[in-house]
Each structure stands twice: as structure tokens, then as C-alpha cells.
Amino acid sequence: MPILDEHSLEFLSHSPEQTQRFGVRLGELLQPGDLICLTGDLGSGKTTLAQGIARGWGSLDPATSPTFVLINEYRRADAATLYHFDAFRLSGVAEAVALGIEELLERDGPVLVEWPERVAEALTPQRLWVSLRWVDDLRRGLHFEAFGLRYERMLRQFRKVTFGA
């Protein structure tokens, strides 16, 4: 587990199940207003990680890829909402703004964004950026980068609960 600095962390997941477990750990740390950006090629594990995040956050419903509906909402028993936005099919920032991404970011629930690089200019600068890469059929490389104090704290907590370091 290479710890690059207090702003970043990089490690390997050895299976889809492990990627989901990493997501669960991250989801347990989410607070209202948090922004988690998931980037990586098709098949790199973004939705798998998002499924774990939603489960760890306490979603009553299983997470699914919002590629065709653009936004999924997951509810928790306390009526809180986690928003899962997929920018893959968008032409760019203008379309994201027209669809209401700015309003989405102002809601009281945490927000997951897949393919955030397509709409980065519309996102808040404070965020956790997670880059996933395909290593082989089972393994994925994950690189976490924190932007802002809230996300540096979140990354420290994630490192501690996941790796004990």
C-alpha cells in the first residue's frame, strides 16, 4: 500500500468483491454534501466501487450504473439520499449544467460522479477523486486524491479503517 502523501493513496484491489469492500469502507465515511469522483476506462471498476459505497452508506437499494438514466438516487432508512451521476453520455459541461448538476451538488446528500473528467468544470474544487485502472481480469489499481481539508480527513479515516495505517 504506497502512501504517496497526506493527499493521496494508491493500492491494488485483487477482486471485484474486494473493490466493493473498499467502497463499503468509503461509503461509511460519507457525509451530506460530499463529492466523490470516480474515473477510469470502461470496465475499470467504477460501478463496482460505487455499489460498495452505496452499501456502506446504508442504501436500501442496490446501486446500478446510471449510464442510461444519468442519475440514480439511493435512499437510506432515515430518508437521506445518495445521488449517483454518470457523465459518460454527456457532450460536456454545458449539457451537465442544463441537466442540473449544479443543483444536484447543492442538495443535502452525498454525490458520486462517474466520468467526472467530462464535467469537471461544473464540479466543486473540494472533492475526493478516485482513479481506477484495469490491471488484469480480477485486479484493479485504485488511486485516491483528496482536494480540500474535508477530503484529506476522509482519506486519513479511510486509510486507517481499511489498512490500519
Could you walk me through the main structural features you see in this protein, from its secondary elements to its overall organization?
With 165 residues, the chain is an alpha/beta fold. It has a single domain, classed as Rossmann fold, CATH 3.40.50.300. 31% of the residues lie in helices and 25% in strands. The chain is built from five helices and seven strands, in the order E-H-E-H-E-E-H-H-E-E-E-H. The protein has helices at residues 16-27, 46-57, 93-98, 101-106, 149-163, and strands at residues 8-13, 35-39, 71-75, 81-86, 111-114, 127-134, 140-147. It has a seven-stranded mixed β-sheet. Strand 6 and strand 7 form a beta hairpin. Helix 1 crosses helix 2 (46-57). The radius of gyration is 15 Å and the shape is globular. The termini are close together.
